[in-house]
Design a protein that fits this description.
CATH architecture: Alpha-Beta Complex
Helix content: 10-25%
CATH topology: YbaK protein
Shape: globular
Number of strands: 10
Number of helices: 5
Distance between the termini: 29 Å
Largest sheet: 8 strands, mixed
Radius of gyration: 14 Å
Amino acid sequence: MPIAKSLAAYLERNAVPFETRSHTFTPSSARSAEAAHIPGHHLAKAVVLKRMDDSFLLVVLPSDYRVHLGRLHQLLGEEVCLAGEAELNTLFPDCFEGAVPALGAAYGIETLVDRGLLEQPEVFIESGDHQTLIRFDGETFGRLFSGTRVVDAGKHA
């Protein structure tokens, strides 16, 4: 499965230019960056959070960062927790477990993006499997997240 159907449809509908890069199977975004020979701060990973009202929020940050929940609680003014695997399977039914694309708009999920990603000349995201990345030039990536709340909610892993 090269690109998840929902993600492919979103990119096509919005005429978003992109390239794909294949790599060996990896279980995590940090390992995907290594396998694809790209810096960790150029690979955007998605962290799905659950709000107290049972809605979801996707935080996009570099693959070599972890979400800083305390900082995020302060920024949002509310408590959030990590979504569970069963919830991820429901939200992203066309993706392999653990390969969530960092483009919440393709799935109708509110998204926050880490400031550092918007400063990169190119950014990669998971395609929905564990062997393919999607590459956007920095300008295109920025356009994909225009109107998205920009945050500093990560910490280097």
